[in-house]
Amino acid sequence: MGLLHYISYIAVAATLCFVILSLASGLLYISELIEEHAKVAKYYGQKGIYVIIGLQTVLYLTESLPLHLTLFTVGCHLVYLQNFSSSWPLISLTSPTFIGSCVLVVTDHFLWFFHFTSRTASYNEQARRYGTRSAGTRLGFKEIASFFGICVWLAPLFLFLSLSANDNALPTTGSSESIAAASGEPKTKALLHHVRLCHH
C-alpha cells in the first residue's frame, strides 16, 4: 500500500468532521431563527405536520405500507401538534404532551425500523427463490432514509430545536408574579421593587 492509501483515511476523517461541524452550525442557525421568528416558525411547523400526515397517507396508498403503522405515525404527529400551544416556543419539559412526544418518536422509529428490516429480508428471500422479477418492489437505502427523515424525524427535530428558546426566555409581562419568578424574590418584595422602578 502506498502513501496515498493512508492519506485517504485522513481525508475521509477530515471530511466527516467538516460535515458534522456544518450540520451542527446549521441546526444552531435554525434554532436561532425559530427563537427570533417564533410566530412564523409556529405557522410553518403546524402546516408542516399537516403536510407530513398527508404524505403518510399517500405513501400508504402507493407504497403498500401497513395500515396500523401508518395510523400510529399519524397519531404521533397529532400528539406533536399539541406542543404548538399558545405559549410556544416555550415548552414545559415535564408536560405530559412533551414526555409523550419523546416516547412516541422513539417507538415510531423502532416500529418502522423493524418493518423495513423485515420487508427487506422478505424481498431478499423471495429474490433468491423466485428471481428478482417475482420478488416485488424493493425499497433501497435512499427511499428508506428519506421516509425516516421526513415522516419520522422531521417534526420531532423541529420541536427539539425550538427548545433552545426556553433557555433565553424572559418574563412576558411586568406583573409581580413574573418579576418574582425571574428574580427569585417574594411577591411582596418584588412588587415594591417594581413600584420604585415605575416612580423613577
UniProtKB/TrEMBL annotation:
<dbReference type="GO" id="GO:0005789">
    <property type="term" value="C:endoplasmic reticulum membrane"/>
</dbReference>
<keyword id="KW-0812">Transmembrane</keyword>
<feature type="transmembrane region" description="Helical">
    <location>
        <begin position="139"/>
        <end position="161"/>
    </location>
</feature>
<protein>
    <submittedName>
        <fullName>DUF396-domain-containing protein</fullName>
    </submittedName>
</protein>
<comment type="similarity">
    <text>Belongs to the SVP26 family.</text>
</comment>
<keyword id="KW-0472">Membrane</keyword>
<keyword id="KW-1133">Transmembrane helix</keyword>
<dbReference type="GO" id="GO:0000139">
    <property type="term" value="C:Golgi membrane"/>
</dbReference>
<feature type="transmembrane region" description="Helical">
    <location>
        <begin position="43"/>
        <end position="62"/>
    </location>
</feature>
<dbReference type="GO" id="GO:0030134">
    <property type="term" value="C:COPII-coated ER to Golgi transport vesicle"/>
</dbReference>
<feature type="transmembrane region" description="Helical">
    <location>
        <begin position="98"/>
        <end position="118"/>
    </location>
</feature>
<dbReference type="Pfam" id="PF04148">
    <property type="entry name" value="Erv26"/>
</dbReference>
<dbReference type="InterPro" id="IPR007277">
    <property type="entry name" value="Svp26/Tex261"/>
</dbReference>
<dbReference type="GO" id="GO:0006888">
    <property type="term" value="P:endoplasmic reticulum to Golgi vesicle-mediated transport"/>
</dbReference>
<dbReference type="GO" id="GO:0097020">
    <property type="term" value="F:COPII receptor activity"/>
</dbReference>
<feature type="transmembrane region" description="Helical">
    <location>
        <begin position="6"/>
        <end position="31"/>
    </location>
</feature>
